[in-house]
Amino acid sequence: MMFIACPVRGDELIPERRIRSITNTPTGIVLRVDCYCGQQHLVRTGRLAPATTG
Ligand SMILES: [Zn+2]
User: Fold this and answer.
1) Least crowded by CB within 10 Å, which of 3, 7, 22, 50?
2) Over 90: is that where the pLDDT of 18 sits?
3) Distance from the CA of 7 to the center of ligand 1, in angstroms?
């Protein structure tokens, strides 16, 4: 589950099965999600994987 900022409904809690695609970009990871408002939104995140240290 993840929160996204929907321009129509505000913050929405989206289950992972609604993620349609995941794209790695130089500025982070971009998710395309099917929102409950009926649209698809692009969500940028950079912290799907745990940070590696050392
Ligand atoms: Zn939406």
Assistant:
1) 50
2) yes
3) 6
